[in-house]
Amino acid sequence: MTLLTSSETNCLTEVLFENALQQARELDRYHRQHRELIGPLHGVPVSLKDQFDIASVDTTFGYVGRSFQPAAKDATVTKILKDLGAVILTKTNVPQTILWGETENPIWGLTTLPHKPAFTAGGSSGGEAALLALDGALCGWGTDIGGSIRGPSHFNGLFGLKPTSSRISHWGVPGPHEGQEHVPSSVGPMSKRLTSLVAVTRAVLNAQGWLSDPKVVPIPWREGLYLEVQTRRLKIGLILDDGIVKPHPPVERAVKEAAALLRNAGHEVIIWDTSEHMGFIEIQDQFYRADGGEDIRRDISAGGEPMIPHVEALVESSKAISVYEYWQLNKAKMLAQQAYNEKWTKSGVDVLLSPVAGHTALPHRCFRYTGYTKIWNFLDYTAMSFPFTTVSEDLDSEDISRTSGTDTSALDEVRNPLDTYNQGLWDLASMKGLPVGVQIIGRRFDEEKVLGVAKVLEKEIEKQKQV
């Protein structure tokens, strides 16, 4: 099945079946000898984005120049997964630099959306998402520095968790801009099933990753917090629109319907103000370009490869800043984080509910805006994608969305070029049936709480199906 997924979507890079069979034999041998499982993930088939080091296997993250340079040892997360009994089947495709919301590079080529080859599977964990959507593995692992777990999960109908960056180890997971910590990347799981996502998160957090990586906070899985939020009335902040790019009709509908389910179950839902988000994004974008594109240029030059269009645009728009200017950016970021923390505390909300993106999956090379996801990387908050519905011809026609009982005048409003561009992408005929997710956001280190609220929402969906 794993190979079949790649024949349809071109989602795989390194295929590790021989290693996987050897792992499986060793697990069987252990079970025969000890009559017990080696760990909570005994025999679970998993896959890794082509950014995670596996001993004796290349980690290219889309660069030609990093080919044929096998990793010396496993990444911390790779070792933890093996120690827990997981069987690693394959590594999956990424965009060149891994800094984009689509998956394409000069080594492995273009990854496509399952069942819709003219559309993107997303990025940068797009190969991972395509594989999991077609049941090529039970669980996969990606990284997220601007939405790279949540975006592909939204496009492919998956659950995907972006933890706070220091909750799960990033050691042995190389990437562009190594050494920068102003916008940290997070390591997290992806799966078709919430129960699987919770199980692997619990297992990895209980594996004491802080003993191998000093940057990991010593916080094991907190079962009490996960269960507690499932037993009380919640207060939820609702983001229908970030004020920058208005979501397409099915995205807006998904968030409204999810909010209605929670409200009808007795939870309090309030409108969340996003007026600071544009300013935060402007600070964040300066961080992405702080080295003037030097890190990317060096990797590109090492392989003598062409830049994909987005990478070229990123590099050409980058201007190196001074150390003093960098300090001022960090100061601005710290002030922003402090202000948002105070706002959250004052509001008393447990989580936020938001779009994952302003659209569903798109035709190739059309992706532009990541504001709905990357804002939470800037704040280093916990966030996850939750698959909620699909694009419906009956429910998502333009006329219905404009008369849905809320203020939709912004559909006709010209806000900015990104919003105009996004509105022009909406095409019900070609997008009918595509998955639509919602995003659940918590504060720093709120992984158990966010997953607990996801469980609450899943239960309400199941209740509705039984009516």
UniProtKB/TrEMBL annotation:
Which PROSITE patterns has this protein been placed in?
Answer: AMIDASES
Q: Which InterPro entries match?
A: Amidase_CS, Amidase_dom, AS_sf
- Asked if the Swiss-Prot or TrEMBL record annotates the protein with the keyword Hydrolase, the reply is yes
Domain Amidase: start-end pairs:
7-451
Q: Which reaction does it catalyse?
A: a monocarboxylic acid amide + H2O = a monocarboxylate + NH4(+)
One MF annotation (Gene Ontology) recorded for this entry? amidase activity
An example Pfam family from this entry, by short name, is Amidase
Q: Does Phosphoprotein count among this protein's keywords?
A: no
Q: Which UniProt keywords apply?
A: Hydrolase
EC number from the UniProt entry: 3.5.1.4
Family recorded in the similarity comment: Belongs to the amidase family.
Q: What is this protein called?
A: amidase
Species of the source: Exophiala dermatitidis (strain ATCC 34100 / CBS 525.76 / NIH/UT8656)
